Amino acid sequence: MAGWDNYTQENVTIGGGEVPVVEDGLYDAVISEVTEPEQRPNPFPQEPGQKFYDPIQTQFRVSFTLEDPDLPEETTFYYYISLPYGITSGRGTIGERSKLHEVMTALGFIQPDKPIRFKPAEWVGTKSQVLIEAKAPANGGEARCRITKVMARRGRKPAAKPAAKSNLRERLTRDVPPPEEDP
Hints:
mainly beta, 6-stranded antiparallel sheet, 6 strands, 10% helix
């Protein structure tokens, strides 16, 4: 076991800081920082029948600085993204339903018929829009402003999404005329 000498530090600061308070809404933003990935125990239990499960969750933080003249300069929000199992396992895959896929698509890093380059450190300076809403944490507590969605910046189209799969009812009732009423 390591001794306290490994943890002794001078000029320790209090972390966490204040979360900016802004009106709920859509804001232009630029990525100002992308942290190195960090690992922690996965807070979600393995689901029965779940094929891929990693007991360690690896995530990184993306800092979005809002570009709004009505807000104080350097108003920044953090957005945490977990690396999916397809990346942490070395398979080199990103699931279409992952938050990482959603963000990379909005930022323009996933486009049809183009190879995907996964290098988050190069995202710094990328412009986007972020939806900010006051929400309480899932485990309870006080509502705080947080980024709930990252989107393409106005004037730039995000990568095209694959055609949505329709459910059976939609497929069966499509182009079927409504039943005629009895006179």
